[in-house]
Structure prediction request, 60 residues.
Amino acid sequence: MKKSDVLKILFELNATQWRLAEAVGVSEPTLGRWLRHPLEGERLERVKRGLEVLRKEVQE
Prediction:
């Protein structure tokens, strides 16, 4: 998953990177560093879980 994919999803959810970082359990600068390269492995799974948390918040 690339940064552009994550940003597109955040835009659709009307969410920010800091909210995703909070949901993932890292600081916003750390998330920014992660997004400089395509996500793989554990980082990818953590970001996917964070995006799901944000999706559920939007649905409520």
